Amino acid sequence: MTDRTTLHRQIYGQVAKHIPEKGWSSTVAIVLAHKGAVHQFGTGTLFRVGDDSFVVTASHVIKKASAHVKTLGITSAANSIVAVPGTWTCSFEDQYGSSDDPFDVAVHKLSKDAVDKLGTKTYLTFDDIEFQAQSTTAVYTLFGFPGIWSDSTKTDTDRLQVKPLQFTTYAYDRDTGVFKDYQERFHILLDAQLTQSIADDGSPAKFTDLKGSDAPFPGALGGISGCSVWRIGDLHVPIDKWSQDASRLVAVLTGGCDPKEAIIATKWVAVSTLLYEGFPEVRKAMQPWLTK
Hints:
The protein has 292 residues and is an alpha+beta fold.
């Protein structure tokens, strides 16, 4: 048994009460709808700046969805579909000397009608964000919907079924030089060794599809791209000193590295930059956080 596995078992059960409930209440599934069929395609986070509401996800989710030329939507609290037509604002290539998009984030401004249909869903704000550099001993939880755990609809009367994944892990502590897409100033690299994780009953974790067949981890996590990544605590702080109120959203999940067993997340400052540059109407509301 590895040190990380032992540690995970020691803190498991104590950690759960410190995971913020708003992590899930602000999370939506991003879906494609076409001729009565609905397919889960990614994960998003609801965010509000002043009076304006947005959904945040990974830009590669939107680019792949756009290639299908189908209607995009997000799930409401009642698991019905809320259409989000129109333009998404995506980070772009050729930034910071890279031919690729180092940020891989996208935002969509929600209409009043969409906000009304989403009902009681939670919208995160800048008060929920942590921009500071992360400790190497930080503990993180991500909230998303794996595609292999979703059951697409086939008719107008079917309801989309999605199963959530809540995964708690640590900073990646092995050689990062093997990841061509990882840049320390833009990203947080998370450990994704399933062998060191624990299931709800305390047994070794397994990752299977809806039929119970083993699936590669994190290789088969497609569908969680765009989900929120929260810093819920730090191993240098006694767990009884952790609290939900101190948990902070720090990043957007943008990639998985299989078989290297790592997950790449883009720091939330990329989202803030995209909002500031793409939506001049929110700049005044953002000002108090820009000057901190």
